[in-house]
Amino acid sequence: MKKHNYSAGPCILPQEVFEQLAKAILNFNGMDLSILEISHRSAAFVSVMEEARALVLELLGLEGKGYQALFLHGGASLEFLMVPYNLMRENGKATYLDTGTWASGAIKEAKHFGETIVVASSKADNYNHIPKNYEVPTDANYFHCTSNNTIFGTQMKSFPELNIPIVCDMSSDIFSRSLDFSKFDLIYAGAQKNMGPAGVTLVVVKEEILGKTGKHIPSMLDYQQHIAKESMYNTPPVFPIYASLLTLQWLKKQGGIKAIEKINEAKANLLYTEIDRNPLFRGTAVTEDRSIMNATFVLNDEGHAETFDKLWKAAGISGLTGHRSVGGYRASMYNALPLESVQVLVGVMKELENKI
Ligand code: PLP
């Protein structure tokens, strides 16, 4: 039996994608060659890249709206510095919303490039909520936010309306819920939650915001160079890109983002209802900001941890242990986690209650 995988990453993919990948490692497209050994300049791989880039824009509803999708190296962490490199102007300034560990990682890098204003932060409350009612200076070069805080289990439910470019780190909730993605000028996401294995990062950028810094940008860090080379400036990570394409095709077959959002909401509702009902547990994020991707919760009495841990492990659950900065438990419910896995977890939580 395959485990119910609640791990925060990397990476949870649909079973059928793992099966297609296993075949492609041995014999890609009937070529009697592995996906790992064909040239990235071959017609077969170029068509993988083209389809993946197009499908990203199609699924996000951004086709024909001046956006480019890129598959880059370096992880979301490299985007923490590529964003200011490409957007912060000479003597310019940037604005950031500090909602967690990853947001503060992005802020740390931006500070090397120029004035970096943190418009609001929930750090003092161990990032248990998303700050509201903050002002964003209108003369900043951009506003940066993190849509889903993987570690703390909070998620932005709305985004500010601004007249400056909005940049969003969507690493842990991309393709999981419908948003008006055209409100964002630059979206980035490490592949390894809802898309594919670690090793590739998706960047979706509105071309018109680029080329305005007046500064030299090293080629590998310059979005315009990557666009000019159709996301093949250097050898692309072929395997994670192919895996991403298969996952995106799977998502399209499910009915796209709207369809998966319904399932994701059903999974999250089921789990949060039990966390709130069961007297043994409590959630750590404030209710209105709870993430539908990563649910963080603790036992009211740590003394029950040993029994609970034994029960969920025996039920075939893995990856439920919380991040060390929050403690307790974190149930990551990415797109590929089936509803049945949440039913199993909720069953185990009820079983613990019955035992005690
Ligand atoms: N941003 C968010 C929201 C994340 O969850 C993560 C990793 O989990 C990162 C950034 C860092 O991503 P990477 O490891 O690809 O650099």
From TrEMBL:
Protein's job: Catalyzes the reversible conversion of 3-phosphohydroxypyruvate to phosphoserine and of 3-hydroxy-2-oxo-4-phosphonooxybutanoate to phosphohydroxythreonine.
Annotated metabolic or biological route of this protein: Amino-acid biosynthesis; L-serine biosynthesis; L-serine from 3-phospho-D-glycerate: step 2/3; Cofactor biosynthesis; pyridoxine 5'-phosphate biosynthesis; pyridoxine 5'-phosphate from D-erythrose 4-phosphate: step 3/5
Protein name: Phosphoserine aminotransferase
Residue ranges annotated for the Aminotransferase class V domain, each copy included: 5-345
Domain of life: Bacteria
Annotated catalysed reactions: 4-(phosphooxy)-L-threonine + 2-oxoglutarate = (R)-3-hydroxy-2-oxo-4-phosphooxybutanoate + L-glutamate; O-phospho-L-serine + 2-oxoglutarate = 3-phosphooxypyruvate + L-glutamate
Modification type N6-(pyridoxal phosphate)lysine: residues: 193
Cofactor(s) the protein requires to work: pyridoxal 5'-phosphate
SUPFAM superfamilies listed in its UniProt record: PLP-dependent transferases
Gene3D superfamilies: Aspartate Aminotransferase, domain 1, Type I PLP-dependent aspartate aminotransferase-like (Major domain)
EC numbers on record: 2.6.1.52
Annotated cofactor note: Binds 1 pyridoxal phosphate per subunit.
Cross-referenced NCBIfam families: PRK05355.1
Family (UniProt): Belongs to the class-V pyridoxal-phosphate-dependent aminotransferase family. SerC subfamily.
PANTHER family membership: PHOSPHOSERINE AMINOTRANSFERASE (PTHR43247:SF1)
Binding site for L-glutamate: 41
Binding site for pyridoxal 5'-phosphate: 76-77, 102, 150, 169, 192, 234-235
InterPro entries: Aminotrans_V_dom (IPR000192), Aminotrans_V_PyrdxlP_BS (IPR020578), Pser_aminoTfrase (IPR022278), PyrdxlP-dep_Trfase (IPR015424), PyrdxlP-dep_Trfase_major (IPR015421), PyrdxlP-dep_Trfase_small (IPR015422)
Known partners and oligomeric status: Homodimer.
Annotated organism of origin: Flavobacterium hankyongi
